[in-house]
Structures are given as C-alpha cells and as structure tokens.
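Hi R.,

Here's the chain you asked about this morning:
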Amino acid sequence: MDRPKERFFDPESEERILSAIRQAEQNTSGEIRVHLERSSGKDPYKRAQKIFSHLGMHRTAERNGVLFYLATEDHKFTILGDRGIDQAVPDGFWNEIRDEMQRHFRLGEFEQGLSRGILMAGEQLAQFFPHSADDINELDDEISES
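And here is the predicted structure, written out as tokens:
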C-alpha cells in the first residue's frame, strides 16, 4: 500500500505562503508561482526551467512570470524570471532576494524565507511591471509539487 506523500510545508504554512503570493501580486502584474520537489537532480536551474515551461509560466502577456523553485532534500533553490523580466531589470536583480532567502533558510526558517522572497519580488517587480486596474491573475497561485 502506498503511503501518502509527506508535504514539506504544513497546511498553515502553505496558506501563509499563498497569502504572500497574493499580497505580492497586488503590487505588480508579475505572476508568482512556487514549486517544490525533493531533488532537482544535478542542476536546479535547468530543472526549474523545465518546471517553468511545464507550468505554462511563459504564457503570460508580459512574459513576467517568476518561479520560486525549491529542491528540499538537496537544499537548493532557484528564482527564475521569464524573458520579459530579464529584458527589463538590471543585472543582479534577484541577488538581494536570493541572499535574504538564504539567510532564513540557513536558520531553518523555510516558510519565512520563501514568504519574504516572494514579497520582495513583488515590491521590486512593481517598479518594472506595475499592477493596473485591469490586471488579471494569469497563473494559478497554488504551490505545485512533484
């Protein structure tokens, strides 16, 4: 008999992370998703690219999707922005967010680190992709896992 898959975040933590996504997206037309899996294999960036495509994150009107990818057993993560973001933002755009998340993760504060990174992304993306009155939520906010 198959055991149910253990989730990395408990339901309350997941709800707080989803709340951070919704709050971040109030400031920007950017679309934020979170994907978790136990292991990325060899290269978490390449794996995040595959997940990004699989989730259809490249289909936003402004190509401004952001994926927070966490490989929980590997202790690795990647923040991946779509082409529209890469063309609009300066080099090193994600570094401050990455560093803040790493600081929390090193302390075992995974929910706090992820939520803080999401909120920071929303604040920074608002400079390049501000939220407009006719903005729609183009991507599901739910945390995906594989």
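One quick note: The chain has a mean pLDDT of 92.

Cheers,
M.
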